[in-house]
Amino acid sequence: MSEKPVYRRVLLKASGEALMGGQGFGIDVSVADRIASDIAEARAMGVDVGVVVGGGNIFRGVAVASKGGDRVTGDHMGMLATVINSLALRTSLHKIDVDAVVLSAIAMPALCESFSQRKATAYLDAGRVVLFAGGTGNPFFTTDTAAALRAAEIGAGALFKATQVDGVYSADPKKDANAVRYDRITHDEVLAQGLAIMDTAAIALARENRIPIIVYSIQEAGGLGEILRGGGKRTVVSDA
Ligand SMILES: Nc1ncnc2c1ncn2[C@@H]1O[C@H](COP(=O)(O)OP(=O)(O)O)[C@@H](O)[C@H]1O
Ligand SMILES: O=c1ccn([C@@H]2O[C@H](COP(=O)(O)OP(=O)(O)O)[C@@H](O)[C@H]2O)c(=O)[nH]1
């Protein structure tokens, strides 16, 4: 394995559910601390890190809609949940002296700065970790799509999807024991086979911008660093 990182700038997507750890709701601080230490390792390798955090551990807009409520309001609540998670992750990063800033797609100046592409790029260039909160800022989208969008905006070499499974399988491995894991697969194949590792809008956006997606497990510490060194268990979704 080489010491030179495979990517110089990455966008890390961590789901809200991952932050929940073994709990049924909310934030397990030990998980936030572990994600922070993985980010610190990447920074120590000289990799610029942008992060999009999900909100599913606290609120999802579809939960409101499925009970007959207003989807848009539900999505606003979901986006607020991502701000809560981003503030938690910033706290974990600051605890270990990693400089990190939260930029929100929805203005809330008392809590954090507002997102702009220029600001994000300038902070990353300066070596700060940028936590992108508030998803895309629009209802009917997901934080996976926000991750693909921010990855394109910051010129990330890859989008890292840190998730509960260790790659993309021929079927959902939680439901099909015979599912086979792919080492590499193309964006087109993921879309054509309907592999539901991410929503289709996110995969299509990554494909259009030629951004590889690296799917790996968030369950074990050190996974991000290992992949950045050229090893690790993961699936690379790439057209190259
Ligand atoms: N073909 C597939 N390969 C891998 N995972 C899949 C596939 N189809 C569905 N999944 C499911 O997608 C989940 C990842 O999506 P998501 O819910 O957004 O992330 P998280 O599990 O990190 O919250 C996995 O935990 C897995 O159960
Ligand atoms: O651009 C976005 C991103 C997120 N959300 C809302 O925020 C919730 C939490 O995000 P997501 O479900 O993507 O989180 P994750 O599954 O990664 O925890 C979603 O369900 C949506 O309600 C939204 O409306 N627009």
From TrEMBL:
Q: Where in the cell is it found?
A: Cytoplasm
Annotated GO MF terms: UMP kinase activity
InterPro entries for this protein = AceGlu_kinase-like_sf, Asp/Glu/Uridylate_kinase, Uridylate_kinase, Uridylate_kinase_bac
UniProt note on regulation of activity: Allosterically activated by GTP. Inhibited by UTP.
Per the database record, which ranges form the Aspartate/glutamate/uridylate kinase domain?
Answer: 9-216
Keywords in alphabetical order: Allosteric enzyme, ATP-binding, Cytoplasm, Kinase, Nucleotide-binding, Pyrimidine biosynthesis, Transferase
Enumerate the Gene3D superfamilies for this protein: Acetylglutamate kinase-like
Q: Tell whether Cytoplasm is among the UniProt keywords.
A: yes
Please list the residues that bind UMP: 55, 75, 136-143
Q: In which pathway does it act?
A: Pyrimidine metabolism; CTP biosynthesis via de novo pathway; UDP from UMP (UMPK route): step 1/1
CDD domains recorded: AAK_UMPK-PyrH-Ec (cd04254)
Q: Give the superkingdom in one word.
A: Bacteria
EC identifiers of the protein: 2.7.4.22
The entry marks the following residues as binding ATP, namely: 13-16, 56, 60, 163-164, 169, 172
- Enzyme class of the recorded protein, top EC level: transferase
Reply yes or no: does the keyword ATP-binding apply. yes
Q: How does it assemble?
A: Homohexamer.
The free-text function statement in the UniProt record for this protein reads: Catalyzes the reversible phosphorylation of UMP to UDP.
Q: Which NCBIfam families match?
A: pyrH_bact
Name the record gives this protein = Uridylate kinase
| Species whose genome carries this gene | Mesorhizobium liriopis
